[in-house]
Specification:
Blueprint: H1 3-8, E1 14-19, E2 24-32, E3 38-46, E4 59-67, E5 72-76, H2 83-86, H3 97-101
Antiparallel strand pairs: 1-2, 1-5, 2-3, 3-4
Length: 131
C-alpha cells in the first residue's frame, strides 16, 4: 500500500506535520489528496525562528489550512492510531484487461516484426539519411 493511500484513510486524526522550511503544523486532518496535499482544521502553526534556530518561533492559530504535498517533510502520527486496521489494503487490485484479451496485437505504437519497409529500412534507421 502506498503511503499516500494510508494518509487518505487518516481523516479526523490529529497529527503534527513538519514542513521543509522548518514550520511545524499541528491539527486535525480533514482530507489528503493523492498528491499528499493535506487539509487540516483546528490548526496551530509554529513558524521557525530564522534569527535564532534554538528559540521557538511565532505560534499562529487557524481554523483551516491547506498544505501543498511537496512542502511536507514528514507526518508525526498519534500513538493511539490503529495501524493494523488502517494498513489493510481493502481495495482489490485491478485486473489488466489487455493481458486477458490474449494475443496483445495492435497495442501501442509498435513497429511490427521488422519486415515490409523495403531496402532502405525507413527513415531514421541505421546510417545515412534514408532516401
Amino acid at each position: 500500500m502506498k503511503l499516500v493511500r494510508f494518509l487518505m484513510k487518516c481523516a479526523n486524526e490529529t497529527v503534527t506535520i513538519e514542513l521543509k522550511n522548518g514550520t511545524i503544523v499541528h491539527g486535525t486532518i480533514t482530507s489528503v489528496s493523492p498528491q499528499m496535499n493535506t487539509a487540516l482544521r483546528a490548526v496551530k502553526m509554529t513558524t521557525k525562528n530564522r534569527s535564532s534556530p534554538s528559540a521557538p518561533g511565532e505560534t499562529i492559530s487557524l481554523d483551516t489550512i491547506n498544505i501543498r504535498g511537496s512542502t511536507i517533510r514528514y507526518f508525526i502520527l498519534p500513538d493511539s492510531l490503529p495501524l493494523d486496521t488502517l494498513l489493510i489494503d481493502d481495495q482489490p487490485k485491478p485486473k489488466n484487461k489487455a493481458r486477458k484479451e490474449g494475443d496483445g496485437a495492435a497495442r501501442g505504437r509498435g513497429r511490427g516484426m521488422g519486415r515490409g519497409r523495403g531496402r532502405g529500412g525507413g527513415r531514421g534507421r541505421g546510417r545515412g539519411r534514408g532516401f
